[in-house]
């Protein structure tokens, strides 16, 4: 079996390295952290989740669930680690991100066919290689990729949602429920902060007026439609959020027996339930503005923010135009 270089210790790189190693290949997995850090990562662990801690639905009637079912049958190391790190999340596969990353790091470090090298790769390796450096690829490797593929990649921002402390959430207002009561427990796996029409209108007005980080001139690039900052969604219309991440459908308030005008959902971040992620609330608001505006949400009036939202630049390649169906360049079959 041949030696293979895998560049990047994120989700794709770790899975690729594991699958190759399980098939007898000698794999060198390169991860530049902690030698060179990124704007979004917080630890040195492999497969660190910098945005959401949800892998989405496990229901095999949709694409997300079907993909995970197929991955399990193929011996996915990611899903094995996710099983060990799982936290309650209804039908979604949600993990404690720290436990998950540590487990992946342990599994790959112990594999006899995988050698982990902590160093920045500045150019595409000459031999057989998987480039899985992800959207936070270093400048030097980005230049090497551009020289091979041409500089026609799509660059855009990705945003990170805030995390609040559980003991700072007002449980006299916020209530446990999963949409359509699909949680593992009768009470549901999500915390829900209900809003009436007046509260929602005031929140949208404050969100639209809040001060945001605009970035540098070179950062004026398109947003990814699947992960828009919440203030960008609010600018698109008064009801955009109410039909998006704040939709109240299937989340009847047990105290009133009625469906709220809008709902802010919080998802468990860790196994002990001490940290809760504001679902869909990725943002580029300045730190002080996040605290001012988000504490207008009923139930979060005294919220302690363990992590505020932030943005980082992502760069994605034009795969269909530059690579074949196997993800290889014509010059590198």
Describe the protein's architecture and organization.
- There is one protein chain.
- This protein is α+β, with helices and mostly antiparallel strands and 333 residues long.
- Helix content is 26%, strand content 20%.
- It is built from nine helices and 15 strands.
- It has helices at 11-22, 63-73, 77-84, 97-110, 139-149, 197-209, 230-235, 287-294, 319-322, and strands at 3-7, 26-31, 54-57, 86-87, 92-95, 114-118, 129-131, 154-160, 163-165, 175-176, 191-195, 262-268, 275-278, 305-307, 310-316.
- Strands 10-11-12-13-9-14 form a six-stranded antiparallel beta sheet. A four-stranded parallel beta sheet has the order 6-2-1-7.
- Helix 3 packs across helix 4.
- The protein is globular and about 65 Å long.
- It starts with a strand and ends in an 11-residue tail after the last helix.
Features:
15 strands; 26% helix; 333 residues; 6-stranded antiparallel sheet; alpha+beta; 4-stranded parallel sheet; globular
The coarse silhouette is globular
Span of the ends, CA to CA:
17 Å
- Count of alpha/pi helices: 9
Task: Give the SSE order as H and E letters.
Answer: EHEEHHEEHEEHEEEEHHEEHEEH
For this structure, the quaternary state is: single chain
> Uncertain runs with pLDDT below 50, 5 residues or more?
none
